[in-house]
UniProtKB/TrEMBL annotation:
Protein name: Ectonucleoside triphosphate diphosphohydrolase 3
A Gene Ontology BP annotation from the UniProt entry: nucleoside diphosphate catabolic process
Native organism: Dicentrarchus labrax (European seabass)
Swiss-Prot/TrEMBL keywords: ATP-binding, Hydrolase, Membrane, Nucleotide-binding, Signal, Transmembrane, Transmembrane helix
Lineage: Eukaryota, Metazoa, Chordata, Craniata, Vertebrata
Family membership noted in the UniProt record: Belongs to the GDA1/CD39 NTPase family.
Length: 500
């Protein structure tokens, strides 16, 4: 029995020492895990962009997770609210109309406020971007333009959001951000892989974008060459660089171009009380005031101009004559570069697919040519619409307001001339144009692209979450600390007994 005693003590000592080491290891492990294995939780962030165009304002609410992909937020549209009342470029003229516009702004703000959690209000950035309507007003009446912006800044800064700025964005910015929007929605900039992670699409090609507004039109598309000039922009999105050509033509929006064409028709008439308009359908007539044509920087006031003068126009439905007048507002000859669009503006040859939205889409839809089409088919549809009598046209296009329906003969010729003669789309490349209003149920426009760009500037809200809750962490630390102390005591007792 005596010979077995040392062996028994050795086993006990080994067991206790092993328990001591395990306790110490567990204690260290819990402390390290709690400190090093923290994961970050990003809260949802919001942003508001107000798009104030030449015909109306739209208020967009966007959201994105705080965890950004290569410094750019993954943004989605939450709400799109159309502001009732007049466009902001017509403010500071009629106080009653201004009051209606402010009511329209407040109604949309109320909708946005409800959609954003209250605790997020003060950190939600708010931007207003005014486009071609205000660009024209700024040229015509800088003081009124500044007064309108100051009133908007005062109003927007009083809201519970983080108001950033209200400004007039350039035509190039409008075109570039429209390009970003189209490609973002197409998934050409970012996509989810099988592991639900956002990655850059392998071999994805970008699409060009074409925007037709009321006062300006924009074209933008990616180019492979490193060309230099005011219309060549170098941007970085989701960690990848892009070279983009973008140009904006002020006064070549659908509404302003129509005024230029009406002026040409008036200048070629002998009797202002009976003017033949080849772009209006047969059976249609209208009285137009001079101010509605000449109260803009896009048309030159005639000699002896009177804003109250009346012009009586009668539709003659002459498609070829209308086309000729439409083409006359472009200069296709002047060009000091190897390639130009019109009015001497340099433009590389168009390549790849294009998304044509806003006024392009509405015109194509009126011609039943939305989506993709053939160049000759599109042209034939324009001629057919122009030669359709007004009474029959109203029955066929009952879903289009008469206010707009009367413009689509001119509008069809204008879109065709702009794309075919201006941007140089031919029979082959025309097939690459997609006339669309939305992509994946989201409107195509500059505001989403603007929000994507601005999300680089918005700091992410990050909360670090440890793997163990405080009570669990404290309990484990107490347990393994107590276990360590007990084993130390046991080791001490065993050593004492071996001495006697």
């Amino acid at each position: 029995m005596a010979s077995k005693r040392p062996i028994g003590y050795k086993c006990r000592i080994a067991s206790v020492l092993l328990l001591l080491l395990a306790s110490i290891a567990a204690l260290v492990a819990v402390a390290v895990i709690q400190d090093k294995w923290k994961f970050t939780q990003y809260s949802i962030q919001y942003g508001i962009v107000i798009d104030s165009g030449s015909s109306r304002s739209n208020m967009y609410l966007y959201e994105w997770p705080g965890e950004k992909q290569n410094e750019t937020g993954v943004v989605t549209e939450v709400l799109n609210c159309r502001v009732s009342g007049t466009p902001i470029s017509e403010m500071k003229v009629d106080p009653q109309q201004d009051a209606k516009s402010w009511i329209g702004f407040q109604a949309c703000i109320d909708n946005v406020t409800k959609a954003i959690p209250a605790e997020k209000h003060k950190n939600t950035p708010l931007f207003l971007g005014a486009t071609a309507g205000m660009r024209l007003l700024h040229e015509k009446d800088e003081n009124r333009s500044n007064e309108i912006l100051e009133s908007l800044k005062e109003y927007l800064s009083s809201l519970p959001f983080n108001f950033q700025n209200a400004s007039i964005i350039s035509g190039q910015e409008e075109g570039l951000y429209g390009w970003v929007t189209a490609n973002y929605l197409m998934g050409n900039l970012l996509e989810k892989n099988l592991w639900n992670r956002y990655i850059h699409p392998e071999g994805a090609k970008t699409v060009g974008s074409m925007d037709l507004g009321g006062a300006s039109t924009q074209i933008a598309f990616e180019i492979q060459d490193e060309l230099q000039g005011p219309d060549y922009k170098h941007v970085k999105l989701y960690g990848y660089p892009y070279n983009v050509y973008t140009h904006s033509f002020l006064c070549y929006g659908k509404n302003e171009a129509e005024k230029i064409i009406l002026d040409k028709i008036i200048q070629g008439a002998y009797d202002p009380t009976n003017i033949a308009n080849p772009c209006y359908p047969e059976g249609f007539n209208i009285t137009i005031t001079a101010s509605s044509i000449y109260d803009t920087e896009c048309t030159k006031k005639p000699e002896g101009y009177s804003p109250d003068q009346k012009f009586f126009m009668v539709g003659t439905a002459d498609s070829e004559m209308c086309r000729s007048i439409v083409k006359s507002i472009f200069d296709f000859k002047t060009c000091s570069s190897s390639h130009c669009s019109f009015n001497g503006v340099e433009q590389p040859p168009v390549t790849g697919d294009f998304k044509a939205y806003a006024g392009f889409f509405y015109t194509a839809r009126a011609l039943l040519m939305n989506g993709t089409s053939d160049l000759d088919q599109f042209n034939a549809s324009v001629s057919k619409l122009c030669h359709t009598p007004w009474t029959e046209l109203r029955k066929e296009k009952y879903w289009i307001s008469e206010k707009y329906l009367k413009t689509y003969c001119y509008g069809g010729h204008y879109v065709f001339s702009l794309l075919a003669d201006g941007y140089k789309f031919d029979k082959e490349t025309w097939k690459n144009i997609y006339f669309e209003e939305k992509i994946k149920k989201t409107s195509i426009g500059w505001s989403l692209g603007y929000m994507l760009s601005m999300s680089n500037m918005v700091p992410s809200e990050v909360k670090e979450i440890p793997p163990l809750t405080d009570p669990v962490f404290a309990g484990l630390i107490f347990l393994f600390s107590a276990l360590t102390i007990i084993t130390v005591v046991l080791v001490f007792i065993i050593f004492i007994r071996t001495c006697y």
